[in-house]
Amino acid sequence: MKKLLLMSIAFVFLLTSCGSKTKGELTGVRGKKWFPEKPYGMELIPQGSFIMGKSEEDMAKVKNAPTKTVTVRSFYMDDTEITNSEYRQFVEWVKDSIVRTKLAILADELGMGPDDEGIGEFAFMDADTSKLSAYDKYMLDNYAGMGETGYEGRALNKDEDLVWDTSEYPDEYYTEVMDSMYIPEEESYNGQRTIDVTKLKYGYNWMDIQAAARAKKGQRKDFIKKEELEIYPDTTVWIKDFAYSYNEPMHNDYFWHDAYSEYPVVGVSWRQAKAFCNWRTKFKNDDQKERGKQFVNQFRLPTEAEWEYAARGGIEGGTYPWGGPYVISDTGCYMANFKPQRGDYAADTALYTVEAKSYEPNDYNLFNMAGNVAEWTDSSYDAGAYEYVSTMNPNAAYGENDRKVIRGGSWKDVAYFLQVSTRDYEYQDSARSYIGFRTVQDYMGTEEKFAGQRKLR
């Protein structure tokens, strides 16, 4: 018996020895081999240092941009400003999700499931528990009812196409839900009834890591912030920004009409731009999850230093993204969309904005880093920020400071605001007809990988 036991132990030891690939060495946990993937529509900005601020004379006497040598890490940046078409994708996703949620909740209240016709076809996916995995069933049994509505976390049925044609609504319950999404009959005109854009709200959570790192005590939940806001652009900015001016056509058509699809979105506040970044990250990672791939890191607004570094395009002492001190090329053409002369907005052939890929890109292949629309950055505006920010990845980001830095100048600005070192600001809840944004994403990897990565540009 004792001999048999010793043989069993020896056999187990043999199995564990043969099954080990580490040979008892500290080799680390090995995951899947990872390769950097260039995000769609973005350009790689390699790490480097530059002199941030105005090296030329401070003509405007603002005294808020003394020169300072800083270094920024590598990142990807959108090659254009976010366009109306791209932002509409965000709006459509939010609208679709809200409608599906309303349909699923009503179906749940009516006790209808996927096997029922009409609104039942849009019931929550977990309404049929026989198709749930063990994990999903556990989550439903233990966490259903938690949250403000009791429906948080339940999966929507996205396999069924939504019906927007009123003549094809499947039943009266579906009609009830869809009717709640439109403006009241008495507020419509010209026979058109449109979506009530105040219903299009996007909610998300984020963690204030800066505050958590500085805090001496506190639990993780203390630093998780919840945001919920309306995300439809304020189209009235075309009227409000210019008194005694006829800009109704831009108010009526600019955001939604296909003629302006490739133009930069405007009328978006800093907070809405942040919400877009969160959604873009979620949208990408939902697809990564379905394909069994590792999540990507977050899309975000660029810091002020990143924006200026990218705008310079590798030209150290350039006044504008194209380098030279002039706004007219050697062939007599304007290099950007701005207001060249007093009252003459169209001297550069553009009255308002132009398509996002207009004019020549800078040496990082980024379009319209000067003019067209000014761009939100993540940084808070402080006239003395350059005096105290770090020389490594500098960023003055204060939650309590609602003045946010905008860069690049716009179609209605004079040339001074187009200079790569010029600073300006706007309040975070403000929306303007001349402010848009573009997003960035951190590059993950080391300098050695850049040789192969540059081939993707």
TrEMBL record:
It comes from Sediminicola luteus. This is Gliding motility lipoprotein GldK. One of its GO terms (molecular function) is formylglycine-generating oxidase activity. NCBIfam families: GldK. Keywords: Lipoprotein. PROSITE patterns: PROKAR_LIPOPROTEIN. Residues 42-440 form the Sulfatase-modifying factor enzyme-like domain. InterPro entries: CTDL_fold, Glid_motil-assoc_lipo_GldK, Sulfatase_Mod_Factor_Kinase, SUMF_dom, SUMF_sf. PANTHER family: FORMYLGLYCINE-GENERATING ENZYME, SULFATASE MODIFYING FACTOR 1, 2.
